[in-house]
Amino acid sequence: MSLGKAVVYKHIPVYYPHHVGSMNALVGMIGGLGGFVLPICFGIMNDAIGVWISCFMLLFVIVGVSVVWMHTLIALLDRKIHPELKGPKSLPEMLHLPDEEYP
C-alpha cells in the first residue's frame, strides 16, 4: 500500500506544481472515503454473490481501472508538455519513418 501511495504523491508536485496542497488534500480525502465505502461494498457484494472472495474481485476491478486511468492521464500530460515525444523515436530502426504515419 505504501508503494502505491508513494507513486500517487510523487506525481502531484510534477503535474500540479501550483496546487500541491489542494491536490494532496483531495487524494487524502478520496483515500479516506475509500476506507469508509469499500468495507460497505464488500459486505453488500458478499450478501449479493455469496462468495467470500468477492471483495478481491471488486479490488481487482478498481485497481485495473485505476492503472489504465493513471497511465492514460500521464501519457496525455507528457504528450502535452513534450510534443516532440510523439511517435516511436526511441527505436533506431524506425528513425527514418516520417511523423505523419503516427497519429
Automatic annotation (TrEMBL):
- Listed transmembrane segments: 25-45, 51-77
What the entry lists under Gene3D superfamilies is as follows: MFS general substrate transporter like domains
Q: What is this protein called?
A: Major facilitator superfamily (MFS) profile domain-containing protein
The organism's superkingdom is given as Bacteria
Record keywords: Membrane, Transmembrane, Transmembrane helix
